[in-house]
Amino acid sequence: MERLNRTFFERAPETVAKELLGHILVRKTKEGVIKGTIIETEAYGDINDLASHARFGITPRNKIMHELPGILYVYLNYGIFNLTNIICEKTGKAGAVLLRSAEIIEGLEIASSHLKSSKHVKANEFLATGPGKLSIAFGIDRAFNGLDIVSSDQISIEIPKNTTGEFDIIEKPRIGIDYADKSKDLPWRFYIDGNQYISKK
DNA sequence: ACATGGATTCGCT
DNA sequence: GCGAATCCATGTT
After folding, report:
1. By C-alpha distance, which of A83, A94, A70 is closest to A40?
2. H-type alpha helices, A84-159
3. What is the pLDDT of residues A63-116, one digit of tens each?
4. φ/ψ (deg, to 5) at A98
């Protein structure tokens, strides 16, 4: 399979978020390879997006959102979960895509063992459904912050060989950002229509 | 130095 | 539908 390159991520987050659907997240661990089809994403913008960490301008935490497109932004949410994002836009302009849900298609047992050793999630058949669970299932923590998904040998995104997999894309407001005032209704959550691995209805 | 609250998930009411 | 778990980035004093 061919992996996504820098150019893919060097665009607006809402474009990247939409186009990532159906691509394959590949994670190489010591135990083996985990692969999953990306089912759901959200886009986060720059200082003008009141739901984005970039809304405060450049701070120590969100500095990375202004850096190289294709690197990972992983942060701790609610003191409990690591959330996985990929940086978008040209260097200097903030933007990121949150990976919210995936359907695991390879390495089910490894992903399952990750969930079982985690205190706050249930290890059911929906291993990577929801951004917190996705990060656990794929073994992504804050040590991955700044890692380059374009060149890393631990993690990559690949273009599926079978391009016959057509699907409809649903665009909806983002989850869990009611505080975001005028930005909260932006249709920047994207998911594959009818797919059962959606984080929320 | 302190107070606030969150890009979640699960279990109980 | 609601609240707890749990911690650190950010804004305020």
Report:
1. A83
2. 108-116, 131-137
3. 999 999 999 999 999 999 999 999 999 999 999 999 999 999 999 999 999 999
4. -85, 125
- Nearest nt to the CA of A56 via C1' is C10
Please give the structure tokens belonging to residue A168: 């409809």
Q: Which residue has the tokens 């209805």?
A: A201
- Distance, C-alpha A49 to centroid of its chain: 18
Joined together, the tokens standing for residue A141 give 């923590």
pTM over 0.90: yes
A81/B8 CA-to-C1' distance in Å? 7
Q: Which residue is nearest to nucleotide B9 (CA to C1')?
A: A121
Which nucleotide is closest to A60, CA to C1'? C9
In whole angstroms, C4 C1' to A61 CA is: 26
